[in-house]
């Protein structure tokens, strides 16, 4: 009888210990819920193959200035992720001679320079596929950056062409990132009937990707190439996306008017996007407080009550974000190594134009 009681006691202790510690390999919910810290996302979208400042007044943009700004942010923010939401390499859906040679030259220059600037992940858009899927796959194999698309497949199959998602450890946080593209724009299919690729349903795709990434990530980011209307509809259907970095499917109309690109908070998902043409770089600073994924805009959602009073009332501090647009203006110093690569490309372009008798495009 004594032995039986002892066995029951030890069995009870074992069950109690097991229930407190969790299964081997499971997340420690209690400790992870208390993670606090900051990370920074440097983002762009709809660069559209631009390698030098625009011809506007004042001139804005250029890869040499972009490199300088990214390096400056790296010196200020220890834990950063550099992301592009799509339409990085080309501004059109098709390439035609004789200017196709020049556009491909620009794309190769962006490829080489982006590798050096530490681009972590790129969302594949229809514009990036303007040359061909095979040529973009060659770019992906030549770059350390992750080329992501969870719903672009070879036509007639469900075989993905690019990696659907990836994960990064940024400071204290595990960040899952996936790529997504809309099926339609203005009621028309993104890809024509004769294209070698097609697009899986973005809502169903996002639901699957979020489920996978939530298992191993503290923060889930979608790089999305779709209209804002479709993004809002996606968020309503698919909870759990913490941040969406957006490029749009509308015709490119370069502008640096920040007002129409200010971040939005929709169903607790942060949506950010950049003006077209590589004129502006976005910076999103995320402060996570006690692991909360309920966010407030640090610039607009100001809470004046003291912390002690808020806690007494059961109102606990949210995590927050601060978005900054950085105009790549003329007084930003060019990164000289990048400038040399751009100038080399421009010389090759001029030699080609001379040989073909082309006017400046």
How is this structure best described in words?
There is one protein chain. The chain has 361 residues and is of the alpha/beta class. The chain has a single domain, classed as Metallo-dependent phosphatases (Purple Acid Phosphatase, chain A, domain 2, 4-Layer Sandwich). It has nine helices and 17 strands. Helix 4 runs antiparallel to helix 9. The longest helix is centred in the C-terminal third of the chain and has 21 residues. The termini are far apart.
The CATH topology corresponds to Purple Acid Phosphatase, chain A, domain 2
Number of strands: 17
Helix content: 25-40%
What is the CATH top level name? Alpha Beta
- Kindly estimate the percentage of residues that lie in beta strands according to DSSP: 15-25%
Counting helices, strands and paired strands, the structural category is alpha/beta
Give me the strand/helix succession: HHEHEHEHEEEEEEEHEHEEEEEHEH
Task: Name the assembly state.
Answer: single chain
Secondary structure blueprint with pairings:
Blueprint (H helix, E strand, L loop, with lengths): L1 H20 L7 H4 L4 E8 L18 H14 L3 E5 L15 H18 L3 E3 L9 H10 L3 E3 L3 E3 L10 E6 L2 E9 L2 E2 L2 E2 L7 E3 L2 H13 L4 E7 L2 H10 L5 E5 L16 E3 L2 E5 L6 E9 L6 E3 L9 H6 L6 E9 L8 H21 L5
Parallel strand pairs: 1-2, 2-3, 3-4, 7-11, 11-12, 12-14, 16-17
Antiparallel strand pairs: 1-15, 5-10, 6-7, 8-9, 13-14, 15-17
């Amino acid at each position: 009888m004594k032995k039986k009681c002892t066995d029951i006691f030890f069995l009870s202790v074992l069950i109690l210990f097991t229930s407190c510690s969790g299964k081997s390999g499971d997340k420690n919910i209690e400790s992870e819920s208390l993670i606090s810290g900051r990370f920074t996302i440097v983002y762009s979208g709809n660069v559209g193959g631009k390698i030098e400042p625009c011809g506007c007044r004042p001139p804005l943009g250029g890869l040499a200035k972009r490199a300088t700004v990214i390096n400056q942010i790296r010196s200020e923010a220890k834990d950063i992720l550099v992301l592009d939401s799509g339409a990085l390499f080309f501004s059109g859906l098709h390439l035609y001679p004789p200017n196709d040679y020049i556009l491909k030259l620009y794309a190769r220059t962006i490829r080489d320079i982006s590798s050096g600037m530490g681009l972590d992940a790129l969302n594949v858009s229809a514009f990036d596929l303007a040359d061909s899927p095979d040529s973009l796959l060659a770019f992906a194999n030549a770059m350390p950056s992750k080329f992501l698309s969870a719903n672009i497949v070879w036509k007639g199959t469900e075989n993905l062409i690019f990696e659907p998602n990836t994960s990064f450890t940024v400071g204290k946080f595990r960040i899952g990132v996936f790529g997504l593209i809309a099926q339609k724009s203005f009621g028309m299919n993104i890809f024509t009937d004769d294209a070698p690729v097609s697009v899986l349903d973005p809502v169903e795709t996002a639901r699957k990707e979020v489920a996978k990434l939530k298992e191993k990530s503290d923060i889930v980011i979608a790089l999305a190439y779709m209209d804002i209307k479709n993004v809002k509809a996606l968020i309503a259907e698919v909870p759990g996306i913490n941040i969406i970095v957006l490029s749009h499917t509308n015709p490119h109309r370069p502008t640096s008017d920040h007002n129409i690109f200010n971040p939005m908070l929709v169903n607790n998902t942060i949506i950010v996007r950049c003006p077209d043409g590589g004129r502006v770089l976005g910076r999103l600073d995320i402060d996570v407080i006690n692991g909360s994924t309920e966010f407030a805009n640090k610039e607009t959602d100001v809470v004046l009550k003291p912390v002690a009073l808020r806690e007494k009332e059961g109102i606990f501090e949210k995590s927050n974000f601060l978005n900054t647009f950085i105009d790549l203006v003329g007084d930003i110093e060019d990164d000289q190594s990048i400038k040399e690569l751009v100038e080399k490309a421009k010389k090759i372009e001029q030699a080609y134009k001379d040989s073909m008798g082309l006017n400046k495009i």
